[in-house]
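INFO batch 0412 | record 1 of 1 | parsing
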Amino acid sequence: MLIGVVGKSNTGKTTFFSAATLVDAEISNRIFTTIEPNKGVTFVRTECPCKKLGVKCSPKNSKCINGVRYVPVKMVDVAGLVPGAHEGRGLGNQFLSDIMEADALIHVVDISGSTDESGNPVAPGSNDPKNDIKFLEEEIDFWILGILKRNLLTLVRKMESTKEKFSVVLENQLSGLGIKLPEIEDALVRAGLNPNSSDEEFLEFIKILRSSSKPIVIAANKIDIPGSENIFSRVKDVMRLDMIPCSAASELALRKASEKNIIAYNPGDPNFFVLNELDEKQKTALGFINNSVLVPYKSTGVQKIIDKVVFDVLNMIVVYPVENEHKFTDHKNNALPDAILMKKGSTALELAYKVHEDIGKNFIAAVDARTGMHVSAKYALKNGDVISIKAGR
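INFO prediction complete | emitting tokens
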């Protein structure tokens, strides 16, 4: 699973990525500071079963902090987008190609309106964030339309002679964009598309396809700048989108301070605790973050956005495979060693294959370690399940 962080230059896109991953990416107000994609690992936050089960866990592929499990997810920060990207303006072709690798996108929008359409800094409130939200979607849609229409007539003629399905022709034309055949088939039905449809009808099909194959969550960044809250409320009411207010700069500052043991802070927490004496500059900065971000919004919003993408948009759950269902351990006696992200609706057998192909092939049964009950291969996993897989040799 890969989450793409996208948006114009100077919206705080790379700051969001750095806050989420602690990868030391270059941050500046120069347009196209990000050229090659920055790649890193972020984490989703979920309740660890350790406290309810009364065990001290020993995470291997994740980390547990006071009963909160942080599970790794890959993240990429893509080059800034400018209007006309689908025609090759700026780094458009590279940008659009890079985001197609992602399963979902976080669109970092400057909700303070202090960045113009090309990514240049302007006075707060000068730019309407609604336009930024629309233009990113339109650039993606027109870019896919260009790819789709390229050689389509030739492919349709071939389809008529080979009797291939129209959906298969479209899948071949969109190969490499991470779009699956079932998504194409669903969008075809909903759009009523056929080979003779107009460009407008193809564009409507692409909008449906993009929303399912590359879902977007809006990160309303720079919410700490005065006036941003009013802009956020207005944009949200008009566009009726599920936007989440955030301050990526505040999250990055808190995580850096935590790294240096200046404060105690975990991503997603509503507060922090001072560990050492602060100088005046630190007091002022942390006081501003607390009063302008944490108090009114209960968090910086960064972790909330990541969790929403993984759990709500991509419909993932976290499952804990173990060998010993009585002690909740692996063969080395590590309690709850692994936290695995699975698609909601996944089965015990699919978990077995996820752990190891041989375990999947030799699957015999599974045990719900919380209840001690045996479950079948078709058992639908639930978020937080602790499962012991029984396999033959």
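INFO post-check: The chain has three domains: 1-37+78-129+215-314, 150-213, 316-391.
INFO record closed
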